[in-house]
Amino acid sequence: MSKKAAENEEKRINNTLSEWTVEKFLDMRKEVLDRQKDLEKSNMEMVEKLRLYDEKIEKLEKELQPKLNETDKTLKPEISSEMEENNDSAVTTDPVDSTQDFQENDEEMMSTSGKYFVLKHTFNNVSSFKDGTYYFSEKEEHFGFPWRICVIRCDGFLGLYLCHLLLENTEKKWEIEVDYEMKIMSPSSREKKEKSGGKGCFVFKMKVKKMTGIYKENLRSFNKTMEEYSDVVLIVNDQKFYVLKLYIATHSPYFKNLFSGISNETENTEIKLYGIDADDFQKYLEVIYGEQAIDEFTVEAILMVADKYDTPVVIEKCENFLKEKSEKTLKKKLELSNRYNLVAFTENKEMMSTSGKHFVLKHTFNKVSSFEDEKLYRSEEEEHFGVPWRIIVRRHDGFLGLHLCHLLLENTEKKWEIEVEYEMKIVSPSSGEKKEKSKGKICKVFKSDATFTASGYPQFIEWDELEKDFVVDDCFCAEIAVKVKKMTGIYKENMRIFNKTMEECSDVVLIVNDQKFYVLKSFLSTHSPYFKTLFMRKLNEANKIEIKLSGIDADDFQKYLEVLYGEQAIDEFTVEGILMVADKYDTRVVIEKCKNFLQYESEKTLKKKLELSTRYNLAALMKECLEEIESVSDIKSLIPGDVHDLNPSIMAELFQKSLSLHNSN
């Protein structure tokens, strides 16, 4: 073969190989595209099948519901009753079958992703229940709604009711559809049938199926007017939301997976969502789209939807609202942080500082016209957190001086210090329009080696202004709101050590006001649900962790730990501070020990015991205090400077006492 012929043959072979390579590449490309189409078709078929199943289930539910309702009517008599509260608001009960067997497992009744909660309350002194009188549990807020349990003894039966506390007959129409299950159980830890010593425990298991008309007006529209700006329609309870797949998928892995099998079709795809309310989903979308839709009513439901659809940006916004703006109770915040794993929120010291050592001194000064210049006039002594306090006023150079005074001994061998922040005001005692004059907050540190025991304003108000605007019937009211920021050296010597010498026997360090406490997580978690939640994600960490606690004193926490570890640390000085810490951290064993001390050992005044029993819900102590009232003077000693500060239930009991004392005379 000639050289030229060889070159032509090589060129032919190369061209053939090139054509073959291109052909093979095109075949492979066609195969990949075919597989992708098959995959998309398969995904679409799966989505369509799921949609058809959902529609079939919904259709079956609609077909069966009338039959079930008819069966329910034939099997159960309707029980409908109305009851009047003290404020004349009517509450209507729903039909209930009292013979129904209760399920032991809450999850059988409630889905884990819906609006559900449990109301539980122990009613005390059941043997003293009067016929025809309503008894109420404390108010609890769930999903923006206040709820409570109501019971009544009537004609040999106990009536049990679920109450909401929303206003009736308002201009705005609202509706709540609920499923609930009620039961009565013995509070005893032993056999259920055992008598419980005058107590009864009542439980409501609630599932809110639908809520409408509760929230404020919508901040953004997702209705049909947004159709041209959307590529998918999400349907919740027959309400359509027109949104962009890409935007929603960017914020939620759940929706990213849901939309992955849906191609970019010309017409909007419709997808039904279950287990949520349309109003809640509306607010959830508003937050995703940048609106300020989170408030006290919406935050819990938005958090629930955001958790269901795994939307971190919305969860974080709800968490920030709860930390920085919400006025919900500490108990409610901890409940939400536990349910939705808001660990950073649980540890946030701003939230934890909402409870602390605070009290208000109030006194009405009489015979003001006879006040002598330079003479001191004092209120009665009041003890708070182991320290006696009183208000002092003085007329001086045409002014009224107002002072906060403690009654601790000065210049003692033991060094002590109390740092307080207080605010003073003068109030007219008139039952009409109240006038008041106040000054800004003052910070003061009282010390054992200080010369003066009082702090305040020598010229709080001009005497002429006082007489003109604030003196009524020759008297005026003085009020000082006090927050104890720090106390040291007041209590007796420590009974147990929690410092660095205990490091080997501990696995966590709790820091209070820069003082470190070395303790065991498992021991604290056993006694306190609060610490159980706090430590939940830290139990398996190899390195010792440090956690700051705020809103309490190191001395009080020391005594709280001592009681928890079995020491006899409760006395007249420590009991209130220990009780405050135990209530803050939900430690029943410590609360019970404080209650027993107040009930059987303490020599505190009847007024102080009643105050603590009301603040910390110590029912047995409250009952004993009321039973100790034997005269009208006893009743007068319990009345605070402002009668409106008295707990309504206590006020009713005192009124009953006064009537019985009057009739006996």
UniProtKB/TrEMBL annotation:
Residues 64-103 are annotated as: Disordered. Residues 358-482 form the MATH domain. This is BTB domain-containing protein. Residues 230-289, 506-565 form the BTB domain. PANTHER family: BTB AND MATH DOMAIN CONTAINING-RELATED, MEPRIN/TRAF-LIKE MATH FAMILY-C.ELEGANS. Residues 88-102 have a biased composition (Polar residues). InterPro entries: BTB-MATH_domain_protein (IPR052664), BTB/POZ_dom (IPR000210), MATH/TRAF_dom (IPR002083), SKP1/BTB/POZ_sf (IPR011333), TRAF-like (IPR008974). Residues 64-76 have a biased composition (Basic and acidic residues).
